Amino acid sequence: MGRPTIYDAAGGATAFLRLAAAHHARCLADPVLEHPFSHGTRPDHVERLAAYWAEVFGGPSTFSDELSDQGALVQIHAHTDAEAAMGTNFLTCFLAALDDADIPGDRQLRTALADYMAWAVAQMMSYAPKGAPLPSAPAVPRWTWHGLAEA
Q1: Which end of the chain is more exposed for a tag (fewer CB within 10 A), N or C?
Q2: pLDDT digit string (tens) for 77-114?
Q3: Distance CA 51, CA 35 (A)
Q4: Spatial separation of the C-alpha atoms in residues 79 and 132, rounded to whole Å
């Protein structure tokens, strides 16, 4: 039997729900991120975020099958002129939320999660400038122990 997915190593669906909730709480407490996270988010934002991250890391494709798609996610972040601190603070909140959510402290797991989020933040921030080109029909990325598998 091979190595478990990052999703399984992190603890599965319940772990990603805890992580999404912890991350959201940290973003609400962050002076740069509080406004976008407290205005205009869906009531089920935490659950949708958990489903998205679960899919990215090898879990079920609930996000793509039942909730939304990568194109909609890109559109939410596109052409907002978001300041660089938003991306930096988002990543910082994610890394701290790993502990808040009791994600296992395995170094390889934490590195994989951190590497993904750094990559994802850079991707979304690249779409933030007004007029930035956007991908056509993007797929939910898949992140493995070796990095990006498909985008």
Answers
A1: N
A2: 889 888 899 999 999 999 999 999 999 999 999 999 99
A3: 23
A4: 7
8 Å CB contact between 15 and 6: no
pTM: 0.93
What are the b/e assignments for 24-33, b being 16+ CB within 10 Å?
A: bbbbeebebb
Return the residue matching tokens 């205009």: 40
Query: Could you tell me which of 67, 69, 54 has the C-alpha nearest to residue 5?
Result: 54
**Dihedral, CA atoms, 29, 111, 18, 48, nearest 10 degrees?**
90
R_g of the chain computed on alpha carbons: 15
Contacts of 128 (CB under 8 A, 6+ apart): 77, 78, 79, 80, 81, 82
Question: Residues 45, 47, 48, 54: what is their CA dihedral angle, to the nearest 10 degrees?
Answer: 140
Q: What is the pLDDT of residue 146?
A: 96
Question: Other CB atoms closer than 10 Å to residue 68's CB: what's the count?
Answer: 15
Going by the DSSP 8-state scheme, the letter that residue 148 receives in this structure is E
Closest residue by Cα to residue 74 from 124, 143, 125, 131: 124
Q: Which residues does residue 142 pair with via DSSP β-bridges, in sequence order?
A: 150
